[in-house]
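Final report, Chapter 2: Outcomes

The project's central promise was a pipeline that accepts a single protein chain and returns its three-dimensional structure in a standardized token representation, suitable for archiving and comparison. That pipeline is now operational. To close this chapter, we reproduce one record exactly as it appears in the project archive, with the input sequence first and the structure output second.
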Amino acid sequence: MLIGELSRRTGVNTHQLRYYESQGLLRPERGMNGYRDYDEDSVLRVKQIRHLLGAGLSSEDIAYLLPCAAGEAPELVGCPELLAAMRSRLRRLDDQMDRLARAREALADYIDAAERTGGESCPSVPAPVRIASPV
């Protein structure tokens, strides 16, 4: 099947499918015309990738895990190397959550302190103030 058909069947944009290919997560054949030709297994593979991305795994993590994946959800065979990789990723996520929780607490403290001052306008700050998102 061509990339457009894979996109329709999985709900994943073609540029994302090309990215998965560039990361080694998908390996389509090339037709005589140079077009990507995906087999039926690619539908399942894309669904597995989407589930693993939803778990916060990077494409590098997923490339490592996919050979151990079975089924759409997917289920992973728990070999020691795989478990070590997933535990490492879980620790990184826990660290990120801790940093975010501390940042949230600090920001809430700033808001509380500002509200205690009566909420008066700051003459040196143009209104409205827009704080950019870090993402």
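Archive annotation: The domain at 1-77 is CATH 1.10.1660.10 (Multidrug-efflux Transporter Regulator; Chain: A; Domain 2).
This record, like all others produced under the grant, will remain available to the consortium after the project formally closes.
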